């Protein structure tokens, strides 16, 4: 089992030469990674999903890992064979549990002797672990994924927005390298003074999410007696910052059936506002794939997305996408080619974009282009890119130690 703590105490690979491992077998050297995440199962969100795919890649390639995550009721103690070490957390209404640092983390990490520490969307827990990493002289790689400063601005906390932006930038500046999921987020971090930022996008399972999963029985159930209508859907967390109420203009149209897929604290309010929509709750695996492929158009309204995995899954399903012309979606949707990038808060613009797709005689071609745009971005390829970043950070760190020793 990965992460078995009954073996002799491990040692880190302190002398690292990247050239040795850049041949045909990139994973020739097995690594020990401490993965610190601000979110994990049973919470399901973009951070959690990315961490799960990373752990599955570790297991497939034979790397060792220890996961450190906030405590959560009914949370698993292992995943993909890797141990999950939980730290105390505080649950706040509408938010994932917030993990708090423990002094016992330093001896835990030191005993595991990781070659590198991976910080997934670091906030409180990740910030603390950066200090441990410096104390133990362990290289760190951070992944920027959550625009918490943008969320603060959405909720009217302008002062908090400015402070959070600087704080997040300071955390990432303390790590050896930062990976960001979109060109927009890379630029945003660089403007905030974060050094050594690299683009690292997400993978998509194009076998699971595919046009062939379109289900006419499901469509019939969603449309009822009005089979002449088109189905427009949203997939994601139901929270105020996602601005799902901006879909009201579509919910009021007689030629559209709006379908909302997901759960979250704003569901009750949204059911009152979008009273013609079908709310089908949280869906996963094959059921989720069926819903995606059965849509005629996918719309995402969140304006603080650093990437937006649901857009990528919709595209893989051959569904044209309408999304905000801000943030991560601008990397995923090619305006006028695979969908439209607009101000989704502008009801007229949103309705017009829907009309352009529905009236387009080349709609099947747009669907084909949507799938083609992401089909090559597989999780194994993305995971290989991540491991490559690990190797580069390790070599740079090793070289830095050598220079300091010479000096």
Helices and strands, with pairings:
Blueprint: E1 32-37, H1 46-61, E2 64-70, E3 78-79, E4 82-87, E5 89-90, E6 98-99, H2 105-112, E7 116-120, H3 124-136, E8 140-143, H4 148-154, H5 158-173, E9 177-180, H6 183-191, E10 197-199, H7 216-223, E11 230-235, H8 248-251, E12 256-261, H9 267-273, E13 278-281, H10 285-293, E14 297-299, H11 309-316, E15 321-324, H12 329-332, E16 339-342, H13 347-358, H14 363-372, H15 379-406
Parallel strand pairs: 1-2, 1-7, 2-4, 7-8, 8-9, 9-10, 11-12, 11-14, 12-13, 14-15, 15-16
Antiparallel strand pairs: 3-4, 5-6
Keywords:
elongated, 6-stranded parallel beta sheet, disordered N terminus, Rossmann fold, alpha/beta, 16 strands, 8-stranded mixed beta sheet, 2 domains, 407 residues
Give your account of this protein's structure.
39% of the residues lie in helices and 17% in strands. The chain starts with 31 loop residues before the first strand and ends with a helix. The longest helix has 28 residues, at 379-406. The strands form 3 sheets. An 8-stranded mixed beta sheet has the order 3-4-2-1-7-8-9-10, sandwiched between helices. The radius of gyration is 22 Å and the shape is elongated. Helix 4 (148-154) packs antiparallel against helix 5 (158-173). Mean pLDDT is 90; it is low at 1-9, 20-27 and 149-159. It is of the alpha/beta class and 407 residues long. It has helices at 46-61, 105-112, 124-136, 148-154, 158-173, 183-191, 216-223, 248-251, 267-273, 285-293, 309-316, 329-332, 347-358, 363-372, 379-406, and strands at residues 32-37, 64-70, 78-79, 82-87, 89-90, 98-99, 116-120, 140-143, 177-180, 197-199, 230-235, 256-261, 278-281, 297-299, 321-324, 339-342. It folds into 2 domains: 18-203 and 378-406, Glycogen Phosphorylase B (Rossmann fold), CATH 3.40.50.2000; 211-372, Rossmann fold (3-Layer(aba) Sandwich).
């Amino acid at each position: 089992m990965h992460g078995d703590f009954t073996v002799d105490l491990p040692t880190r690979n302190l002398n690292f030469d990247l050239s040795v491992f850049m041949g045909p077998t990139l994973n020739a050297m097995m690594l020990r990674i401490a993965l610190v995440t601000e979110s994990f199962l049973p919470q399901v969100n973009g951070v959690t999903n990315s961490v799960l795919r990373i752990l599955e890649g570790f297991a497939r390639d034979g790397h060792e890992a220890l996961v450190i995550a906030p405590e959560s009721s009914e949370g698993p103690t292992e995943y993909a064979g890797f141990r999950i070490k939980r730290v105390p957390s505080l649950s706040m209404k509408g938010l994932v549990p917030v993990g708090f640092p423990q002094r016992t983390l330093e001896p835990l990490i030191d005993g595991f002797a990781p070659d590198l520490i991976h910080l997934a969307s670091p906030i409180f827990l990740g910030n603390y672990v950066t200090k441990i990493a410096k104390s133990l002289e362990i290289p760190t790689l951070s992944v920027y994924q959550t625009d918490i400063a943008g969320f603060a601005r959405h909720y009217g906390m302008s002062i908090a927005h400015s402070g959070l932006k600087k704080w997040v930038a300071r955390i990432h500046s303390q790590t050896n390298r930062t990976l960001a999921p979109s060109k927009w987020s890379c630029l945003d971090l660089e403007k905030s003074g974060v050094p050594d930022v690299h683009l690292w996008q997400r993978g998509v399972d194009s076998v699971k999410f595919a046009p062939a999963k379109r289900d006419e029985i499901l469509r019939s159930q969603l449309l009822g007696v009005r089979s002449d209508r088109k189905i427009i859907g949203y997939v994601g967390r139901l929270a105020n910052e996602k601005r799902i109420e901006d879909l009201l203009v579509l919910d009021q149209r007689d030629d559209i059936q709006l379908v909302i897929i997901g759960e979250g604290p704003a569901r009750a309010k949204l059911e009152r506002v979008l009273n013609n929509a079908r709310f089908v709750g949280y869906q996963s695996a094959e059921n989720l794939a069926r819903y995606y492929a059965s849509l005629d158009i996918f719309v995402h309204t969140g304006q603080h997305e650093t990437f937006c995995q649901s857009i990528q899954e919709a595209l893989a399903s051959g569904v044209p996408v309408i999304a905000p012309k801000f943030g991560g979606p601008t990397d995923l949707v090619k305006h006028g080619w695979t969908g439209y990038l607009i101000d989704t808060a502008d009801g007229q613009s949103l309705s017009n974009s829907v009309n352009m797709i529905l009236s387009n005689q080349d709609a099947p071609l747009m669907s084909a282009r949507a799938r083609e745009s992401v089909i090559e971005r597989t999780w194994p390829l993305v995971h290989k890119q991540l491991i490559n970043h690990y190797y580069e950070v390790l070599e740079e760190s090793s070289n830095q130690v050598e220079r300091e020793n010479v000096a």
